[in-house]
Structures are given as structure tokens and as C-alpha cells.
User: Which sequence fits this backbone?
């Protein structure tokens, strides 16, 4: 299994300039590739192959006056930029033909220098190294300071340097993990748990445990409103507006980092303590179109379930998703009787068949566990239904699950 380990980078002024140059060159090559294919489509010609584009847009372009500055950066990142364009077109056609699952993808678009996220990727061919002093030595950029929050388990196969909207730099290493070693590190467990995700409580477990919702966005709203108001008052194109935009981005990044850390800690705890985990397959996109949209996005259920999925696969646990149309909130977990619809303001209800008083969320968690039909044998292996490890979806070069990164 492949994972990404991210660490914070602290380049100096010269290295920041070199990275900006590398981001720009990679962006130009990507845009040239998209333009070449769009021109071929407009002329009803066959799309040029990757090898043809490489010779024309990189090798030959370096010899021209207009593109001679492409030689100032590593050729590996330019080749990877072409491959990214190739992957974007492949995903677009797969989505168009119905082969690719998920929402319909649009055709590749041109990248802008004003994009919030910039990235370049170095493979092993680029001969990047980690120095004895713990710096990341990148070709034609230099030895960049890294804040190592932990050691890398194996030698990385590639590294992606990312600049986010808040102006922070990160190094994202692709690691091939050993499933046997990962599962050996995880303690034995024979428990099965059902999880009901909500807004009042982020998660209610079938054993009665309730995890409060941190509501990171709601708690930071006052500061976010202030920074956004300051941004709106700055003149467009001015340096002060650029500074104000960074303040807004950093405030949002702080909220996102806190939410991600909370998801990582809770998902790791659940995976380590339980052999089987059952969750409801929520329609987050549908809920995000209701009046609860801000609270739904603040909770980040999709991100949390994604973490549970790849950690279950990594550590040999079982994650089962039950259908979103299962009447878990209105089914009595004691006698199985199905009651009428329950508005969101109803947090407790009494079963008309057996008279049991239910906490709405705890009752739903019990029904989720029951609906999953999980059972554990004496050796701790899931036996009913036939176990299928949670699969992750890859989306191009950034499809690997990401481990917690250094602040």
C-alpha cells in the first residue's frame, strides 16, 4: 500500500525564488500540453502522443529564445507535468465513457499563476537526496530545511513539493508500506463497533460513547469574518490586499489543520481498538445543499470516513458501509419494530411496540452495527459477511492517503 508522508519545509529567500521558477515552468509546460491537444481537437486531428509533446514542448522549446528559461529547472519536473496533463485527459475520457466512478469530470483547464496551490514532483530520476543534516536536497533548488515530525519508514519513491494558499511549503513523500509489519504493530482486537455520525455529537458509538463535535469553523467564525472584512476593504491589485489575502488563507488553514488532526486522532483510536467498524454511507453532497450546509462541511464526515477506509486497509481491519436508506433512526434496536419518521429535533423517542425509551443517536449506532452483519471468529478475523477490505480511490498523482503532517 502506498501512503504520503508530509513534512513542513522552510526554504530561504533564494530557494523560494528557485521554487517559484520551478512552479512557473511546470505550469507553462502543462498549459502548452493542454493547448497542443485542444488545437489538435479543433483541427479534427489525433491527439499528439506524450513522446511527441516531450520533444516539442521541452527538448525543442529549450533551444528557442521564448522558452530558453525552461533549462533553468530540473527536466524531471517538466516531464512529470506532461504526465499530469496526460493523466487529466485519461481521467476525463474515462469519466465521459462511464468507466470512471464518481462525479462527471470536465476537460483539463489551463493553470493560472494565481492558483492557490502550486506543486512540482521529483521522481527518483531527479536524484534528490536527504542530507546527513536532515535537509532535502533538490536539484537546481538546493538543500531545503525540513521539520521532521518522525522518521520515514522506508525509502520514498518520489517527493512532491507543495505551496498552499497560506504560503506554506510542504514535502510530500510517497512511501510503500509493508502490510505485514503494519498489522503486527496494531494490537489484537475482537470488538465490533457501529458509528452514527451527527452534528450535535460528531460521533456516537454503539457502546454508548459520545464524541463531541469540535466545530472548528464555528469557533473561528469571528476571526474569519474580521480577516475577510479587512480583505474586502483593500484595493484590488495592491500589496496590502495580497497581505490581507494571506491572513484569510492562514486563518482557514488553521481551521482545516485542526479538523484534520482531530479526524486522524479519532480514526486511529477507533481502528486500534476495534476489529470491525460499521458506518452509514451518508450523502454528504446532498446534505451540503440544505440549510445545515455549513455545519456539515464543518464536521468533515467524508474526510473522516476516508481515513477510516485507508487505515482499515493498512492495518487489516474491516470497514463496512451500510446503505443510507436504512431506517436506523426510527428502528427499535430492542425489538426491531420500525416507527414513523423522526424530525431532527426529536432526540429521544419511545418504541410503540415494546415501550423502550431510545436515545436517537445511540439507537442508530446500534442499528448500524446490526445492519452491517459483522461477526468475529475466535481468531479475530471477520467471518460474516464475507470480508472485503476497504478500497481507496486514486485520483491521479495525488490519490494516496496522507498521514498527519508536521505543523
Assistant:
Amino acid at each position: 500500500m502506498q501512503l504520503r508522508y508530509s513534512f513542513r519545509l522552510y526554504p530561504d529567500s533564494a530557494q523560494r525564488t528557485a521554487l517559484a521558477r520551478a512552479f512557473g515552468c511546470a505550469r507553462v509546460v502543462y498549459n502548452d500540453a493542454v493547448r497542443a491537444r485542444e488545437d489538435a481537437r479543433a483541427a479534427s486531428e489525433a491527439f499528439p502522443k506524450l513522446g511527441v509533446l516531450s520533444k516539442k514542448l521541452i527538448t525543442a522549446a529549450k533551444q528557442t529564445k521564448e522558452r530558453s528559461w525552461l533549462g533553468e529547472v530540473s527536466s524531471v519536473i517538466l516531464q512529470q507535468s506532461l504526465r499530469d496533463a496526460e493523466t487529466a485527459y485519461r481521467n476525463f475520457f474515462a469519466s465521459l465513457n462511464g468507466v470512471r466512478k464518481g462525479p462527471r469530470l470536465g476537460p483539463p483547464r489551463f493553470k493560472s499563476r494565481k492558483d492557490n496551490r502550486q506543486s512540482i514532483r521529483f521522481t527518483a530520476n531527479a536524484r534528490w537526496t536527504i542530507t546527513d543534516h536532515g535537509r532535502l536536497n533538490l536539484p537546481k533548488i538546493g538543500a531545503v530545511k525540513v521539520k521532521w515530525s518522525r522518521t520515514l519508514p522506508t525509502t520514498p519513491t518520489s517527493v512532491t513539493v507543495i505551496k498552499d494558499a497560506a504560503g506554506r511549503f510542504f514535502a510530500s513523500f510517497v512511501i510503500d508500506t509493508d502490510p505485514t509489519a503494519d498489522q503486527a504493530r496494531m494490537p489484537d482486537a475482537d470488538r465490533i463497533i457501529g458509528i452514527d455520525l451527527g452534528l450535535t455529537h460528531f460521533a456516537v458509538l454503539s457502546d454508548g460513547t459520545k464524541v463531541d463535535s469540535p466545530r472548528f469553523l464555528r469557533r473561528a467564525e469571528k476571526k474569519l469574518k474580521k480577516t475577510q472584512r479587512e480583505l474586502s476593504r483593500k484595493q484590488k491589485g495592491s500589496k496590502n490586499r495580497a497581505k490581507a489575502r494571506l491572513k484569510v488563507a492562514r486563518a482557514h488553514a488553521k481551521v482545516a489543520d485542526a479538523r484534520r488532526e482531530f479526524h486522524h486522532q479519532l480514526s486511529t483510536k477507533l481502528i486500534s481498538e476495534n476489529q470491525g467498524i460499521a458506518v452509514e454511507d451518508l450523502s454528504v453532497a446532498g446534505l451540503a445543499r440544505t440549510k445545515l450546509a455549513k455545519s456539515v462541511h464543518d464536521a468533515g464526515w467524508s474526510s473522516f470516513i476516508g481515513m477510516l477506509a485507508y487505515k482499515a486497509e493498512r492495518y487489516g481491519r474491516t470497514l463496512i458501509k451500510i446503505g443510507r436508506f436504512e431506517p436506523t433512526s426510527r428502528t427499535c434496536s430492542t425489538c426491531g419494530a420500525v416507527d414513523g419518521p423522526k424530525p431532527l429535533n426529536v432526540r429521544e423517542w419511545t418504541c410503540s411496540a415494546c415501550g423502550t425509551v431510545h436515545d436517537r443517536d445511540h439507537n442508530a449506532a446500534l442499528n448500524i452495527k446490526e445492519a452491517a452483519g459483522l461477526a468475529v471468529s475466535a481468531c479475530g478475523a471477520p467471518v460474516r459477511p464475507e470480508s472485503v477490505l476497504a478500497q481507496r480511490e486514486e485520483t491521479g498523482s495525488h490519490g494516496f492517503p496522507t498521514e498527519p503532517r508536521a505543523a
Summary: The mean pLDDT is 88.
